[in-house]
Design goal:
Blueprint: H1 13-23, H2 28-35, H3 39-47, H4 55-64, H5 69-79, H6 83-95, H7 99-111, H8 117-129, H9 134-151, H10 154-168, H11 175-185, H12 194-210, H13 214-227, H14 233-249, H15 252-264, H16 268-271, H17 274-284, H18 288-301, H19 304-320, H20 324-334, H21 345-364, H22 368-384, H23 388-391
Length: 392
Amino acid sequence: MKESVHTLEFATIGDVLKKYRKQSNLSISQLARLTGVRKGVIAKIENGSTRRPGLKITMPLAKVLNIPTDKIVELYIEIDKRPEVLFGLLNEAIRLFNVPLAARVAQRILETPYEESYSLMERLYNFVSSSSDLRFQLPLYHVIIKYARERGMQRFLAKGLLNKYLIERDDFNRLEETYNTGEEILHYVDFLSNEEKVTIYYKMAFHAHAMKKYEKCIEFGKMGHAADLTHNELKERVALAICNSYMFLGDYRALEQHLDLFEKLDYRFIIERIKFFRGTVYSRTGKYEEAIPLLRECLVETTEVNRIFRLTELFDALCKVSDLNSIKSFLEEEEKKIQIFDNDPYQYSELGRFYKLKGNYFMTNGLIDEGMEAYMQSIYYFEKIGALKLIM
């Protein structure tokens, strides 16, 4: 039966090394030869003269004696509260791919009496932020968030929540949950840098757009624009989300005002799409004679990324006027050209809408099997973004 780490709770590192050395039938001299650690050093560790040996000494001994590394780390957590040692242990826990152990070490780092709490929090936050391994980042941010919340460290609570949000928001099946995290960050936004403020406003604008919370998309987008004094592509993409939101809300007057504004600001993302916006407005206000030729032009001029949006809008207009011949040739030719971009919630949402329209078209014309197949494809894409209301 494997020995539990907890049975060693009151042992010293020397006790553990001595126990395993004897189980291995090794003398101190033999262990010294195998590890390169002087026998006098080993003897002092075992008899307790050296109560807190460095990891550089302990780890070679543990390796030769087949002592599980996590067992050594657990012991060090209990007997050595020095920050440098604990950060070394945190690195070791990460190397072992032991997430629970890493979280315990991180908690110990914040509790050590050797350094002031804010200084320790700063060091731990910088350590976690510099890591590229998301398997450890998220649990360690949870430690930071919990500790900061309990002790009123609002700057680190804000930063921890922001990083948690940025990691989790890519899980499209949890859009509602991560959106709530984003809203909590906004309570602490004054504790973030201006760059971080712009980041959360822009990310929340896109997030709200993906969830069809169009009023919120406009609100967050404008907050981001107010904080962002630069001219960059992301700012233009947010402007596009704002225009889309006005369009989906049916506020065409506000849409025209913002199209004019962003055109004057030379936002290329808007300028390249003005014709499509106007064609869509024509379609949604029942001006199909003006809408359909314009939307056809937009489809010819489109890029692969934008194709599904323009395809769906034209398909919808053709269905509204019951142009069955155009729809038939449209589906035969254009559907083949659809390119799916993974991990894009807007694409998934529009694909869901396209196949829903296709299902409606087939069902209306008595093609039940084809209609059900199209509906199933629609459900498949809506499910990718957790859009249960759209599925229903």
